Amino acid sequence: MTARLLVAGVGNIFLADDSFGPEVICALEHRPLPPGARVHDYGIRGLDLAYDLLSGYPVAVLVDAAPRGHRPGTLSLIEAEPPDGSVPPEAHGMDPAKVLALATHLGDEPLPRVLVLACEPAVLPSGDDLLPGLSAPVRDAVDRAVDALHRLVPALLADPTGPLPPLGRPMESGAPHSAALPKTAPA
Length: 187
Description:
Elements: E1 5-10, H1 20-28, E2 37-43, H2 46-53, E3 59-65, E4 75-79, H3 96-106, E5 113-119, H4 136-158, E6 172-173
């Protein structure tokens, strides 16, 4: 069966809570998503993700840490708007807004619907500091993210353009936000 949905873990495993996406992907090995979903840990390989976003998926879910001003460990489901040309594409690194801009630059086809399952980080090192491992509230959010994906993915497989199921408490979901991607501040 051909995958009809991409679940992409993104983040740097050496930068504390930035490793949320890869940790969720690892947890999905023990609780696989339904057939039709391709699950992949992209880490910091933005170019790989950009090309995979051009592979014909109608929808992609990026799983990442994203400072949005909530309590650490809070999950947010964000629908990303297509790039508007204000973010320059970048082939190196894993800033999701720049990855979407790169994918738009590389391809002739429209991007898939892109959702971000984001977790509010407690610890993101600055500079060149390396700090592997998740903080306690983000570690606790990994299982909730897996639960959320098990509600979200079947709904998206059934209707890739349909409404999003609510995440439930203590999570949030909401309407699309301009540039609503990890590493951006809330409006």
